[in-house]
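ZP: hey, is the adenosine-5'-diphosphate-glucose complex queued? I don't see it on the tracker
AM: it wasn't, my bad. submitting now with these inputs:
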Amino acid sequence: MKSLHLQIRFLVPLLATLTVAALLALPLLDQMTLRWFSRDLSARGAMVAKTLSLAISDIEPGAKRERLRALLERGVLDERLVGIAFCSADDRQVLSTKGFPDTLSCKEARDVAGQKDPRLDLASGAVHIGVFPVSPQQADSDRLVLLHDLSLPDRRSVDTRRYMIIFITILGLAIAGITMIVAQISWRGWVSGMRAIMRGEGLVRPLLQNGGGPAPDSAPPELQPLEVEIRRHLRELEDNFYREHGPLTPWDPERLRGLLRTELRGDQVIVVSNREPYIHLRGPDGISVSRPASGLVTAVEPVMRACSGTWIAHGSGNADQEVVDANDRVAVPPDTQDYVLRRIWLTAEEEEGYYQGFANEGLWPLCHVAHVRPVFRESDWAQYRAVNQRFADAVVAEARSDDPVVLVQDYHFALLPAMVREKLPKATIITFWHIPWPNPESFGICPWRRELLQGMLGSTILGFHTRFHCKNFTETVDRYLEARIEHEHSTISYQGEPTLVQSYPISIAWPTDDERAQWPTPAAAREAVFARLGLAPDTMLAVGVDRFDYTKGILERLHAVERLLEKHPEWQGRFVIVQVAAPTRSALDEYREFQDRIQRVTERINLRFGQSGYKPVHLLAEHHDHAALMALYRAADMCVVTSLHDGMNLVCKEFIAARDDEQGVLILSRFAGAARELPEALVINPYHVEETTDALHRAATMPPQEQRERMASLRMTVREFNVYRWAGRMLADAGQWRLRERITRRVQRRSREGAEAMIP
Ligand code: ADQ
C-alpha cells in the first residue's frame, strides 16, 4: 500500500508533464497540419489551373466567353473548389463561377494569395486562395483565381487533434503502467536489499568470506556503496554504544539468576572448594565473620545466592566449629542466609598432606612452569586421596536428588569428580581448573598422572581459562590414557563417559554504581597514598599486587625497576614501585625462602638508588583490604603484572575496573591467561628484563590520550567478559547437557517400551 502511494506520488508529476507537453504540442501540430494542407491546396490549385489553362488555350476566340464559363463551371464541380474567377492581366474580373463571392476582387485575391497563409474568412466559411497565370510564359498573362474550401482541412485538423490527444493519453497511460510495474519491481528489490542490509546479512558477509571474491549472497550492485556506508556507520555507533553502555545484554547477577531459573530450574547446585566463602573468627570482641579476598568466592557466590544451594568447604576459621549445627552446616551470608555452608574439618596431618604437600608442593609447581621442582610424596598422595574422598562423600550426603549440579573448584580436587560420579552417575559435575595446565611432558613427571586424569574425567564439563590449557590437557590425556578424543566437539570420552573440555576465562564482578560512589576520586586517592608512603608529589608511581608467590614474577619485576634506574637515570628520585604482597603458604620452605629473597633484593635496590626521603621500592608484605587496594589502583600511574605463569590473573582486571578515569597503564606478562584477552596492555616477557624495563619507561612517558584509548578498550572487555559471564556460560552449557541427557533417556525409555510391546 505504501509503495502504491509512493508510485502515485511519482506518477502524478509524470502525467502532468505529459499533459503540458500535449498542450504545447497541439497548436504546433495544428499549424503544421494547416501548412501541409495549404501547400497541398496550392499544388492542387496549380494543377487544376494548368489543366484549365490548356483547355482555355484550345477555345476558339469567337466562342471564348461561353466556353470559358462552361469550362470554369465544370471545374467547380469538384466539391473542394468553392469558385473560380478569370481575371485579366490588369486585375479585371472577366467572369466568375457561381460560388465566387462578388465582394472579392481580383486584386484582393492576388494580394491574399501572395501571403504566407493564403486564407480568407468569408461569411460562408474560410477559403484558400490560389492565383495562377493562364500563360505562365507571358509576363502579362490572364489569371485564374481558385478558391478552395478550407472547411475540410479544418475538420481534418480537429480530427488530427482528437487522435493526437487519444494517442498521447494512451501513450501516457502505457508509460505510466510500465513505469509502475518497473518501479514496483525495483522498489521491492530495493526494499528487500535494504532489509537484508539492516538485518546485517550483508554486513556479516565479509567475516564469513574465505577468499577475496564476492560472496554469493552479496547485495545488488546498486546497493553496495550504501552497504559499505551503513556498515561503517553501524560500526561507529556500536563502538560508541559499547563504550558508553557496555554490551547489549550484560552479564550481571540478575541474568545469572534468570539463567538458573530457566535452564537449571529446580536443580540443586553444590559447590566444592578448599577455601570457604565465610570464615568465623574469635577475637577479643567475640565472633566475627570475614570474607576472604578471593576471585573464586566472588564468582561463585551469586550462583549460590540465586539457587539456595550448598557450599562444601574446609572450615579453617578458629570459631567455625562454634557456629555450625549438628551436621556441620551454617546458613550464610549472615544477614540474608541464602544458602548453606557445609564445613569439612581437616586434621593437621590431612591439611599438611593434602593441601600443603600434594596440592601446593606437588600440583602447583607441576602446573606452573616457574622452574620450581614439584615434590611428590607417597604420604601426601594418600592424604590427597583421602581428603578428596571425604569431600566426595559430603557431596553425596548433601545431594537431595540423584542428579545435582556439582561445581568443583580447582586443583585441590582432581580426584573428586570420578568419586562423585561413582555414587551419583547422573550428576552434572563441572570442574574448573583455576591454574594453567602444562604440556604432556611436564605433567608426565607426576607419578600419579593417570589417576589424576581419570579423576578429572569423571566431570561432565572440565573448564580451563584458555584454549591453550584445554589443548594441553587434551594432549596429556591422549598421551597417558586410552580415551576417544573428538576435537570437533571438544569432548573426551573415557570408558564411555564423555567430558566436555572447554575454556571459560574467569574475571571479576564489574563494580556497580553504588560501589563506585564509595571510591575516592583518583586525585584524592593519590593524595592519601602519597601522604601515607611519604612520596614526593612528582613521583611516577607503579603498583604490583600479588600473593607472595614465586609464580608471580616479583623478583623479575624488581630487576626491571633496578635496570630502569640504571638505564634512565632521570627516573632516580622520581620512580617508585609499591609492591603489595600478601603472605601465603608460609609454612612451605620454598615460599619462606622466596619471601626472604625478595626482602633482600628490595633492600639492595633501595640502598643502591635510595636518597634521603626516597626509596624506589616499597614492599608492603601484608594483606590489604579491598578499599586499600582500590585506593592504590586509583593512585597509580601504572600496574605491573609480571607473572612467570598464571592461569588468568585477576589483579590486572581489578586495576582496569578501578580506572574509571581511563588513565593508567597496564604492563602485563604474556604468560598470564589474561594477556590473551587484553592486548591493549603493554604485553611483555617477564624473563626479558630489558623488555620489561622499556615497558616501564614507555608507560611512564605515555601521553594521556594514548592511555585513554588503551584503557577505554580494556575496560570495555573486562566489563563485558565479567565473572557472571564466566559462571553463566558454564551453567548454560551444563543446562544444555542436562537437556540432551533427559531427551536421550526419554528416547531410550520409549524405544525400550516399544520393543517390550512387540514381544507377544
Ligand atoms: P591467584 O593465584 O590467587 O588465583 P589472582 O588471579 O591474581 O591470583 O588473584 C589474586 C586475588 O587476591 C586478587 O583478587 C587480589 O586482589 C587478591 N590479592 C592479592 N594480593 C593481595 C593482598 N596483598 N591483599 C589483599 N588481596 C590481595 C588463582 C590463579 C589465577 C586465577 C585465579 C582465579 O593462580 O591465575 O586468575 O585463581 O581463577
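AM: back. The radius of gyration is 51 Å.
ZP: great, adding it to the tracker
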